[in-house]
Write a structure and sequence with these properties.
28% of the residues lie in helices and 19% in strands. It is an alpha/beta fold. The strands form four sheets. The protein has a five-stranded parallel β-sheet, sandwiched between helices. Strands 11-10-12-9-13 form a five-stranded parallel β-sheet, sandwiched between helices. Strands 14-15-18-16-17 form a five-stranded mixed β-sheet, with helices on both faces. Helix 3 links the parallel strand 3 (70-74) and strand 4.
């Protein structure tokens, strides 16, 4: 669920002109002036003029560009983010102050300068031209009020708070949260229609904490008819699904029970061809040792529409949650993510362990608990010092996360002594010795 970054009605707070919670204006808007008439402006290809180049203008421009309006910004100066949009042609920048006539041909206008006199002049010109104008510094003088807006695909939620922006934002947040986690049912998007084509979404669930799944991933899960989930995916998301959603256990336990990849592919296609919205929910990222490409290829071959939703990969997230960066200025300029599911020398191994041993940067090993001793020995054999720091983070992002530190020479013994079992990520390199002052990693 995304929020329109320019739609928060509390622009004065964002601009620093008014403390949070203070009245919008010295003179409140008179309720007798009429209630708000909510409409949705379709601004595709239409000219919109924003007068001002500060943070409030930036917020408004972001939403206007999302609606694919032709945006012109009139201001002597703009924020760096706005300036970055000029070169690719996303907007037109008129590098001067406002002049009468700047609104010619506009369908919509925004007055967002720090000068009330300029904003008033823009609003007056807009009134003469019958152009609706949002005046950021004075709601009572605006011909249009911008609601607090949330989006989920083509569903748009707009809330006016009766002149109280915090009320509008609070209600907006509650609605978008409910739509995102499924507690508010968008039945039209869930319920199948006759002959509806099914689809598959390959969702990376992140390292395990449900708060670390992407917004798009959470949306897909909330709208699913069928979910094929593995044991590393955020399990609490499954508990929130309504009873009519079919959940299929597609776990692959290390050297234990597992559903064959061919069966997973077949189930994705089977349910999609039956007109279902199918989500393949897995830990980490689908394309980082997740066999997501095999699932995508199976769907494409069967003519099933398929979408990939990237996830926060455990290779970066789990070390970060333990306070370990995989890169650091002046210390390392590269990091390598490697699968340890087969040891060095194994006929199925595709890893150039000799090359990794010669690297000076960070090595992150996934699926490498049982093979850790052999991998550490290979890295030392090919150039890494035995005393190179190593951190092992088990159950990353969960309530049972813990981290232990050792060296390449002591890795195998440490794993045994500490009883470390999968899932665990281990990191090799000088970054292991870093610790931010006051940082409290999970451990």
């Amino acid at each position: 669920m995304s929020r329109d970054p320019w739609s928060d009605p509390d622009d004065d707070v964002a601009a620093g002109r008014r403390p949070r919670g203070a009245p919008l204006n010295a003179t409140p808007v008179d309720p007798s002036s009429g209630v708000v008439y909510p409409v949705g402006l379709r601004l595709l290809g239409r000219r919109v003029v924003v007068v001002g180049g500060g943070q409030v203008a930036h917020r408004r421009v972001a939403g206007l560009l999302e609606s694919r309006a032709r945006v012109t910004v009139v201001s002597p100066e703009v924020t760096p983010a706005l300036e970055a949009l000029v070169a690719p042609g996303s907007l037109t920048w008129v590098r001067r102050g406002y002049r009468s006539g700047d609104l010619d041909g506009a369908w919509y206008a925004v007055a967002a300068t720090d000068d009330p006199a300029v904003n008033a002049a823009v609003a007056e010109e807009a009134e003469r031209l019958r152009v609706f104008c949002a005046r950021a510094d004075d709601r009572s003088a605006s011909s249009v009020w911008t609601p607090a807006v949330g989006r989920q695909g083509d569903l748009v939620v707009g809330v006016h708070g009766g002149g109280d922006p915090q009320r509008a934002v609070g209600v907006r947040d509650a609605v978008v949260a409910g739509l995102s986690d499924g507690s508010i049912r968008d039945r039209a998007s869930r319920e199948p229609s006759g002959g509806r084509a099914g689809s598959v979404v390959l969702v990376g669930g992140g390292p395990g904490d449900p708060g670390l799944i992407t917004v798009r991933g959470q949306q897909a899960v909330a709208q699913a008819d069928v979910v094929l989930a593995d044991h590393l995916a955020p399990q609490s998301l499954l508990a929130s699904l309504p009873p009519e959603v079919e959940v299929i256990d597609a776990s692959k336990l290390p050297r234990g029970r597992s559903m064959a990849q061919e069966q997973i592919n077949a189930l994705l296609v089977q349910h999609a061809l039956a007109g279902k919205r199918v989500v393949r929910l897995k830990g980490g990222d689908p394309f980082v040792f997740g066999r997501g490409m095999e699932e995508l290829e199976a769907c494409v071959a069967a003519g099933v529409p398929v979408e990939v939703v990237p996830g926060v990969t455990s290779a970066i997230a789990v070390p970060a949650l333990a306070g370990i960066p995989v890169t650091h200025r002046g210390l390392t300029h590269e990091f390598v993510v490697v699968s340890g599911h087969v040891p060095p020398g194994h006929p199925q191994s595709l890893v150039d362990w000799a090359a990794l041993g010669r690297l000076r940067g960070t090595v992150v090993v996934l699926m490498g608990v049982d093979t850790a001793g052999a991998i550490a020995a290979a890295l030392v054999e090919h150039g890494r010092a035995p005393e190179t720091p190593v951190a092992v983070v088990a159950d990353g992002s969960t309530a049972t996360q813990r981290a232990v530190r050792t060296t390449l020479a002591g890795l195998a013994r440490t794993l045994s002594d500490e009883g470390i079992r999968p899932p665990a990520v281990w990191v090799v390199g000088e970054v292991v010795g870093l610790a931010a002052e006051g940082q409290t990693p999970r451990s």
